[in-house]
C-alpha cells in the first residue's frame, strides 16, 4: 500500500489510478469508499486505508451507497440491463420506466454514473445492433427494420444514418471494407476492416463516429459494406482477452490513415506499454517535436482506432485526466484496468 499522504492526496484528487488498489474507510461515518467517490472528502485523520472490500468490512466499515466500492451495480441498473438483454428489440421510453415504478431522472443519473450513458441511449443502440445484425445476414430492409423495433422504414434509416453517416442501403452488396458490431464491457464498438487490416474501431456513442465513417468512406471510394473478415474476428478475440485481463496489447494489423505527422504520433501511442501513461509533452518529445504539444493533442483526437492505438494512455502533465472522445469515464476505467497488467 502507498503511504498515507499519497493515498489522501489521491482521495482529494479522485485519482482513478488507484482504482482496484486502495479503498478508504472513514472513521467518522463508518463507511468505506473508492478513492474516486464524489462524496464530501473527510479529514485526513479520519481516514483508514484498505486493499480490498473484505478488509474494510472486517474492520467494521460498511460500503458507500454512492460509489459502490464492492463493485456491485445498483439493483436498478442491474434490473434494467437484464430486461434490455432479454428483449434488445424493445422500444423503451420514459413512460415504460414510470410504468415500472422508476423515476426516469433517477434512471438517467444512475446509468450516466455507472455506464457513462443513459439507459434509453443503450436501448436505442441495442435496437440498432439488432437491425445491423439482420442486414449483415442479408435480410430484407423491412425485416431488419422490424427486428430493430422500428415502426417505419424512414425511422430506421434516420437512426441508422445518424450512427453510420449514410443510409443502410449504401452498405449492402460487395465491398472492400466491411463494418460490424463488437460488444465490450464498456459498450458497443463498430469495427471496419478488410482482409488485411483494421481501419476503424470506435465506440458507437462517440459523437464524431459518423464524421469518421464518412471520411473513411471517401478514402475507400465509398466501398464500405456490412459484414466481417478474419481481421474482425481477430479484433473481437483481442478485445475479449484485453477486458478479461489476459493481454494488455491488442495485436491486430491496422491501417493508419492520416498525415505523416499523425501516423508518427499514432505509432508512438502504440509503443506505450499497458499500465503506463504519457503526457502530451512526453509524447511530443518522443517523436522529436518537443514544441508540438498542440499538434500531438490534435492527432490524438483524430485517432480512429480506439484501444488498438491507445490514445487513452495520454494524460495531463500534472497527472490529471484529460479529454477522451470515448468519454472520461471510459478512460478512467481503461487506465484502472491496465494497472493490473503492470508495465512491460
Describe the structure.
Residues 98-174 form the HTH araC/xylS-type domain. Its EC number is 2.1.1.63. Belongs to the MGMT family. The chain has 344 residues and is of the alpha/beta class. It folds into three domains: 4-63, DNA Methylphosphotriester Repair Domain, CATH 3.40.10.10; 73-169, Arc Repressor Mutant, subunit A (Orthogonal Bundle); 173-344, Orthogonal Bundle (Arc Repressor Mutant, subunit A), CATH 1.10.10. Helices cover 43% and strands 11% of the residues. The protein has helices at residues 4-13, 53-58, 75-86, 94-99, 104-115, 119-136, 141-147, 153-164, 209-219, 230-243, 260-270, 280-286, 293-301, 328-339, and strands at 23-26, 31-34, 47-50, 62-63, 177-182, 189-193, 198-203, 224-226, 278-279, 314-315. The strands form three sheets. It has a four-stranded mixed beta sheet with strand order 3-1-2-4. A four-stranded mixed beta sheet has the order 7-6-5-8, sandwiched between helices. Helix 6 (119-136) runs antiparallel to helix 7, helix 8 (153-164) packs across helix 9 (209-219) and helix 12 packs across helix 13. The protein is globular, with a radius of gyration of 22 Å. The two termini are 21 Å apart. The mean pLDDT is 82.
